[in-house]
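Exercise 7.
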Amino acid sequence: MLVGTIVTRALGYRELLIHGEPLVYDRWRWLSARLPKTRGDERLIDIGFGTGALSIAAAKRGYRVTGISWDEPAQTKATRRAALCGVGATCFFENLDVTGLDRKREIREAVDVVVCLECVEHIHDDAKLLRDIADMLVPGGRLLLTTPYLHSSAITASDDGPFDRCPGDHVRRGYTRAMLAELMDQAGLVIDEVSYCSGLMSQKLTWLHRRLGILPLHLGWFVTLPLRPLAILIDRPVTAMMRWPHSSICVEAYKRRWLENVSEGRQ
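Solution. The predicted structure, written as tokens, is:
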């Protein structure tokens, strides 16, 4: 605990990003390039916040952040990390099943940005989740979402299923561009851009990270850490050359600014 506290104080949220799988850092790079500039008072909701690293990073940029997850131990740890990183006053974590977002009426049309990274594939009623997200957003508010790409190559056997085994597991393998467009449209969200992240090199390094994770004293992490800068540098050209499918599909969308037709359709 003491060592972890010292490292977090020294490196901040970046310690959490480099401690996780390479895929986690890929998502942060994607998100970091797309988070809108803030005046310092915009509200951001991070759905399925994981370690809290991305929530804390957004708070460091000036957002008022609430991370939402069903994982109570993760909430406790993320709250402590936010305080250590100096954003305890603007970054909060809430223990809530994300299937019940519609019960939080106080945030209806009160959120400027929603971040939903690698979460929707865990939810049976994904259409409801997207409707709930749209209801939270102010007109013109933005959604930044990543989820496994349906046609990606499995990094390990578990990525191919079977799914729907335990709470928190995947309930589907992933999504295509068309599937996400369908979900966004019926929720009243307009897609700005679809992109992809985590190519061949990042996936292979993640495979190595997982296989070596059984080693004691975090030796697997120490082995893979020096390889990460190289993987980042060559991931895009190697993936393009090999025509290798990316691990995640990523969507930038915004809430329709004129909602008369959408409201009529839901009645």
